[in-house]
Amino acid sequence: MSTGVDGFIETTGLSKVYASGEVELAALRDVTLSVARGRLVGVTGASGSGKSTLMNLLGGLDTPSSGTIRVAGRLISDLNKRELALYRRNTIGMIFQSFNLVNAYTALENVAFPLLFADVAKKQRRERAAELLKTVGLESRVDHRPTELSGGEQQRVAIARALVNEPEILLADEPTGNLDSKTSRQIMEILSNLNRRGGLTIVMISHEQALLREFAHEVIALQDGAVVTREALR
Fold this sequence. Notes:
7 helices; disordered N terminus; six-stranded mixed sheet; single chain; globular; 2 domains; alpha/beta; Rossmann fold
């Protein structure tokens, strides 16, 4: 991982402090890093190391206490609420360990749902969702609801949904955390293909060290809110 000025995603002195009464907790401390466009970067560390805080800041779900975030040269850390909402909708796709699907919706409806907020016509929403479900190997499951799908299939739906707005960056927070080893590998292969073939920039939190070392370009390790190691793998 580089720390120069040519990064697609850059943080400088990024910190996040949470206050509870008179007690302050530094969840992230002075993190400076750079991720080049088209890279798959793993982030690892023990619980409480700051991984999810970093992901939330990069995704515009939270704002830093100090420091800056730039994406493609744009200062994300200074955006107002409306601008952050547009950034999340147009630039970022997010997937989580818990899938976060709507049980009342079919796979197709879950994937198409974000396009409602982008004023995309119903026919185009359905076509785009069907295309993405095919990309993740679920073209035969478009009419199934989450309760009718396996955990791996639900995560594939969540990946397709995260891609529906054609984001430039995919942020993945423990996407294999609830899956068995075989299914975890299948999900990693899907993410790797999206990165290699589509040029999608991916930042992924995971405890799966072996999978990260096999698929990621580089791995960042966090401890107590700070970067402790950076390892380029390929």
